[in-house]
Amino acid sequence: MPGGGLLNYVALLRAINVGGHVVKMDRLKNLFESLGLKSVATFIASGNVYFESSVKDAAALERRIEGRLREALGYPVATFVRSTAELAGIARYRPFPSGRLEADGVTLFIGFLHAAPAKAVRGKVTALSTEGDAFHLRQRELYWLRHGGFSDSPFSGAVLEKALGVATTLRNANTVRKLAAKYPP
Hints:
The protein is about 35% helix and about 25% strand. By secondary structure, the chain is of the alpha+beta class. It has a 4-stranded antiparallel sheet with strand order 2-3-1-4. Strands 6-7-5-8 form a 4-stranded antiparallel sheet. The longest helix is centred in the middle third of the chain and has 16 residues, at about 60-75. The protein is globular. α3 (about 85-90) crosses α7 (about 175-180). It is built from 7 helices and 8 strands.
């Protein structure tokens, strides 16, 4: 844990720079700092923000950040907060057999959710699996194993959100592993 009793977190933002919106990472950093968050740093320009806070309730942090971003930017930005310890566990988790994860032409994506989906939703989403797309849910994350090009899949973040019934933000598992390595627990 960082000094002074602060906890370390990563916020994963959904669609911060889409639909004609462009938010420079310096501005994003300043918005997080305006909430009293410490040691704020952005990681690649796709809405990944490391910060420290004395607040132990990640859901409360999500609500505060979402409110501040809506106020400052004028549009909603779904925010998914994980402690760096949680992120390390997500990065280490192997949702599919090694042979499938390491096959040529395969990419693993991780979708972050606010809460673990209900059992019925979990079954609905995993039933979407095909030869080219496999899905696995664990806690507040959706693991999507894509064989082939992303653009060739019938699935997208929007399609998965509809199946889940809640907002999600997707990251390539390589990005999640890099984040976990850069900001260890």
